[in-house]
Design goal:
The complex is a heterodimer of chains A (757) and B (233).
Chain A (H helix, E strand, L loop, with lengths): L7 H8 L19 E6 L8 E7 L2 E7 L12 H5 L13 E4 L7 E4 L1 H19 L4 E5 L5 H14 L5 E3 L6 H11 L16 E5 L3 H4 L3 H10 L3 E5 L12 E3 L6 H14 L5 H7 E2 L1 H8 L4 H8 L3 H13 L3 E5 L1 H4 L4 H15 L8 E4 L18 E2 L3 E2 L3 H11 L13 H9 L5 E5 L3 H4 L3 H10 L2 E6 L11 E4 L8 E4 L4 E5 L12 H11 L11 H12 L11 H6 L3 E2 L45 E2 L18 E6 L15 H6 L4 E4 L1 H7 L6 E5 L4 E8 L7 E5 L28 E7 L6 H4 L5
Parallel strand pairs in A: 6-7, 6-16, 8-9, 8-12, 9-10, 11-22, 12-13, 16-17, 17-18, 23-27, 24-26
Antiparallel strand pairs in A: 1-2, 2-3, 4-5, 4-18, 14-15, 19-20, 20-21, 23-28, 25-26, 25-28
Helix pairs in contact in A: 3-19, 4-19, 4-20, 5-14, 8-11, 8-12, 8-14, 16-18
Chain B lengths: L7 E4 L9 H6 L12 E4 L8 E4 L8 H5 L26 H5 L6 E3 L4 E3 L5 H4 L6 H5 L5 E4 L1 H7 L3 E9 L2 E12 H4 L5 E2 L23 H4 L18
Parallel strand pairs in B: 1-8, 7-9
Antiparallel strand pairs in B: 1-6, 2-3, 4-5, 7-8
The chains are: A alpha/beta (757), B alpha/beta (233).
Chain lengths: 757, 233
């Protein structure tokens, strides 16, 4: 039974989101902290170093950590105010059980009783319907230790094939493209390599708002002479002063890359020697690009021909370069093709694997990199191994001490899991660090599926919109209440340190997972006594895989302020033990050795060569039409993070940008009779929402933008389309047809809800 | 201790991304926790994402101090203009009206003017100001002249401003694009208010990126990149 236990308004009243503020000790100017704990921000994939001030088991403030090499003390507003998520009035301090007669729809229950009930329900449903009746959802904000444990829990304890994670909404298009082109899925270079390069192309990344610390690297590169190319339908803060702005129409990125590559080929701005020696597949790509003459490219992409030519010239004739992309080109039903299009530009230039040239995707979540490597993806085992490959299964079954035949096969992506819930195949769900009710497209479908679950348990520290559907909520840990590692945007493994203990009956997430295993009577393999112990097993499990962490220790990570994987415990050439492998800050260096190519070349295929892949343009699903003529795109604002479960509870961040607005160009607003601040209704084939308009010249006049961090009637994912990329299964958040009109008046929520609710 | 005289504060509005990290960080300062002494404004959000962080410019001859009838605003020997002294300040607001940069604010409840004092508790103890430490785009920078010259070869620091007939020299520097700063030794602030600014004026909203004249391409704000986009009907 997973319908909402009470009216949403009652749930909000009891569980929030309410706002925290600086008060008490946190406002005092005379209270000294007891400890300063060096750790990292809990939010995005940059993972800035920060020092948390603690006193009496509460985080009372922060102090910049200027020695940490990535951010040197720099922080965005989320990092500055992150500590206000702790000691929060909404914090879950006990286990909860669905109880429609209780205030807010839940009653507190003893933790042990809650665990026992979770085990009982899992046992019951698996006995009746088989192991696959239970699904597991994880997340990429979890430490690598937790993601590893969760994958093991699903496969070894629950024996279910159905596990996937919220990186499905985030990094999978980039990951799939990287795998196809390079045989390894990681940004190639440390960000410090950017300074001194000639050209930086940023495709679909609002760097200033989504990864603010990267801005200084961009500006520093520019000061040293780099030209900055920004490809985006909006003039974002980094586009404002870039050298070349490519105002691409949403969903047309692959066409742009094909058109640019065609010009480079025609004018011979390509690296023949590199293509010949280090790649395969160029001829097929070149043949496809011939279909994209300049006029057609300009027509389809909406980018002026002279800008396309300029981009091709700068990119084609540079001697060093970086290319970055993010969700702007990845959140598409053509996301993998878009990412492959960028890789083709990089490979044709031959500029990769050298100190001032690189390629990468800017990850969104704290552990966007590490969270996609160690087995919480539906088709993956630790160390970036493949659950369908017999040797990989054999190795991991050996590490886990189980019969390989008992190890389930591949499952399905997170969205498909909801379709299976809707179809009645998956009866129960165990979820952590995933708020699909806000973050998945077509929210009304997701809600319907949640309602159908026979049993749902969520591990959470606040009652997220999704956890409101749970039968049992288990009180988990905030990032600062546990330790472990994450792998940040550059591929650098770093250490999260525990600043304070969990309050009340809340427990570290890994303990909760193990408690469930024990209550099921299936505790073998789930008796770790610390994150370090989990990490030690992960080192063994990842050994020999592409994402090899075997040479990494907590001590080494702390001593060196991060270690780039792969980091070996044995020399991949000889098998001889290595006492202190330095890690791999830069991939694909000429002459480099990797265990897949075995010396044949720098890329992770048996022949050592990178792959060109034909990166075909396909129009978006549910494109602009006569009925829905405007393009809707979505994204973030700098003061909020993901579905807002944390950041919509932090007062100063909410005040900075309280509620979603629909951004539109004054020319579009003019034809619709809409003025800045007017209540405006945006409608798609799936739903409609009413928000205030923000009329600005910084967006294409055929496109509107709504940020996605809010819930319920303010969630733009009521409108987005569940079309998915056929390879990565990422949803197409970044474009669909919509219509826009001036609203008759304020929506009902305006009087009932506070901005963050 | 004093602020080391080799260290200076530099502002580069062309780098600013409007994230407000500086403002939030200012509220964490131990001397005025909960209140920010600085602010950050959009120039005109309807036309641009350009924002400007506003910290105290620490004038050599502070107008705020000159107009103070109670002589409550002091400038330290190391050039930091401080918040009004509590026993003297009569909360008249003269300083708020007079400051050409729009920096001081009156805190009605406390009956006092407070403003940015360059994190005196931090800078006098060898640390950087909170805002310049956290600024993710380093639009706010604190360091030596040698550091800024090395890190920002495309710009030069300027600390002389013209407000109508009043010329002001400040302790804080603003980074101006090198090629524009050469013919315009002063940043003519009031020119931005005119419809047709004098030829030598520098308008912050019009400052193009340093690389653009080298390449001939137009920055996003200078022309309408969406001119050819048809509005759906």
């Amino acid at each position: 039974m997973a319908t909402l236990p009470a009216d949403p308004q009652q749930i909000i009243e009891r569980f929030g989101p309410h706002l925290s503020s600086m008060s008490g000790v946190r406002l005092s100017t005379s209270v000294e902290p007891e400890r300063l704990v060096k750790t990292h921000c809990c939010f995005c994939g940059q993972q800035c170093g920060i020092q948390l001030k603690t006193r009496d088991n509460v985080v009372i403030g922060f102090e910049p950590w200027e020695d940490f090499p990535f951010n040197r003390g720099m922080l965005c507003p989320k990092g500055v105010k992150r500590y206000l998520q702790g000691a929060h009035p909404d914090r879950l301090l006990t286990a909860l059980e669905r109880s429609p007669s209780s205030p807010g729809g839940f009653r507190s229950v003893p933790y042990a009783d809650a665990i026992a009930r979770v085990a009982r329900e899992i046992e019951r449903l698996q006995t009746v319907h088989g192991p696959d009746a239970v699904g597991v959802l994880g997340g990429a904000s979890l430490t690598t230790e937790k993601t590893y444990l969760l994958g093991k829990f699903a496969r070894m304890c629950l024996r279910t094939r159905y596990i996937d994670y919220n990186g499905r909404l985030c990094m999978v298009s980039a990951g799939a493209a990287n795998k196809k082109a390079f045989g390894i899925d990681r940004t190639t270079s440390p960000w410090s390599d950017m300074v001194g390069t000639e050209v930086i192309w940023v495709a679909g990344s609002n760097v200033a708002e989504c990864s603010p610390i990267t801005t200084n690297y961009l500006w520093q590169a520019r000061e040293q002479g780099a030209r900055i190319i920004i490809q985006d339908p909006r003039i974002t803060p980094v586009a404002r002063t870039c050298d070349l702005y490519l105002p691409v129409r949403p969903g047309r990125d692959a066409a742009l890359f094909a058109g640019v590559l065609r010009i480079m080929i025609e004018r011979d701005w390509i690296d023949h020697a590199f293509i010949e020696a280090s790649t395969t597949g160029f001829d097929e790509v070149a043949a496809y690009c011939r279909e994209w003459p300049l006029a057609r490219t300009a027509d389809v992409t909406g980018v002026p021909a002279r800008s396309i030519l300029q981009a091709a010239e700068w990119w084609g004739t540079a001697t060093s370069s970086f290319l970055f992309h993010a969700r702007g080109i990845e959140h598409h039903s053509n996301g993998v093709q878009n990412a492959l299009g960028t890789i083709n530009l990089v490979l044709a230039s031959g500029r990769i694997g050298t100190p001032k040239s690189g390629y990468g995707t800017i990850v969104g979540q704290a552990n966007g990199q590490g969270g996609r490597e160690h087995g919480q993806k539906c088709d993956q085992l630790p160390g970036w191994r493949d659950i369908s490959v017999p040797e990989h299964r054999h190795y991991i079954a050996g590490v886990w001490g189980m019969d390989e035949r008992d190890l389930p096969g591949p499952g399905v992506d997170a969205y498909e899991m909801f379709r299976k819930i809707d179809a009645g195949e998956i009866k129960a769900l165990v979820a952590i660090c995933f708020n699909p009710k806000i973050s998945l497209p077509d929210a009304s479908f997701v809600t319907r599926a949640l309602d159908k679950l026979e049993f749902f348990t969520a591990i959470d520290f606040f009652l997220s919109d999704t956890a409101r559907h749970a039968d049992v909520v288990l009180p988990g840990s905030l990032q600062e209440e546990d330790e472990g590692t994450v792998t940040q945007v550059e591929g650098r493994i770093i250490k999260i340190n525990k600043a304070i203990p969990c309050p009340g009956e809340a427990r570290e997430d890994w303990r909760i997972v193990q408690d469930v295993a024990r209550a099921l009577g299936r505790e073998r393999g789930f008796t770790f006594d610390s994150p370090r112990a989990i990490f030690e097993e992960l080192r063994v499990a990842s050994k020999g895989g592409v994402a090899d962490y075997s040479g990494v220790t907590y001590e080494k990570v702390e001593r060196e302020m991060g270690v780039f994987w792969p980091c070996y415990s044995e020399d991949p050439r000889s098998g001889a033990p290595l006492a202190d492998h330095p890690g791999t800050p830069r991939l694909f260096e000429p002459g480099s050795y990797n265990p897949v190519a075995k010396g044949a070349g720098p890329f992770y295929f048996p022949d050592g060569r990178a792959r060109f892949n034909v990166a075909e343009y396909r129009p978006p699903v549910d494109d602009a039409s006569e009925e829905y003529p405007v393009l809707l795109t979505t994204g973030r604002v700098v003061s909020q993070f993901l579905s807002g479960t944390q950041t919509r509870r932090i007062g100063p961040l909410v005040r900075q940008y309280p509620e979603p607005r629909v951004e539109m160009h004054p020319r579009l607003a003019g034809t619709l009779g809409i003025a800045d601040g007017d209540w405006t209704t945006v409608e798609t084939r799936r739903g409609s929402m009413t928000v205030r308009a923000s009329v600005v010249t910084t967006i294409r006049p055929d496109t509107v933008f709504v940020p996605y961090h809010w819930a319920g009637p303010k969630s733009v994912n009521q409108l987005t389309v569940a079309a998915q990329d056929p390879i990565s299964r990422i949803p197409q958040y970044k474009v669909c047809g919509c219509r826009v009109r001036k609203a008759d008046g304020p929506p009902p929520y305006a009087a009932a809800l506070e901005p963050q609710q | 201790m004093a602020k080391p005289d080799s260290l200076f504060f530099f502002i580069d509005p062309s780098r600013c991304i409007g994230c407000q990290a500086c403002v939030h960080a200012c509220t964490e300062c131990d001397t005025h926790r909960g209140d920010s002494m600085i602010h950050l404004e959009y120039v005109d959000r309807s036309r641009s994402t350009q924002t400007v962080p506003v910290v105290c410019m620490h004038c050599e001859q502070p107008t705020c101090a000159e107009v103070c009838p109670a002589d409550a605003i002091k400038r330290t020997a190391d050039g930091v203009v401080q918040s009004a002294r509590k026993p003297r300040c009569i909360a008249c607001g003269n300083c708020v009206l007079a400051c050409p940069f729009g920096v001081p604010e009156l805190y009605d409840e406390r009956k006092i003017m407070m403003k940015c004092d360059m994190c005196y508790d931090r800078t006098s103890a060898g640390k950087k100001p909170m805002c310049a430490t956290v600024c993710p785009s380093q639009a706010l920078f604190f360091g030596t002249r040698e550091q800024i010259d090395q890190l920002r070869p495309q710009s030069i620091p300027t600390n002389r401003f013209q407000f109508g007939g009043q010329a002001i020299t400040t302790g804080v520097f603003v980074m101006a694009p090198r090629r524009l700063a050469a013919p315009a030794p002063l940043v003519d602030v009031t020119a931005a208010l005119d419809d047709r600014p004098p030829a030598r004026a520098v308008r912050l909203t019009l400052v193009p990126p340093p690389a653009s004249d080298r390449t001939g391409a137009a920055p996003a704000d200078a022309t309408d990149p969406f001119a050819a986009v048809e509005v759906p009907s």
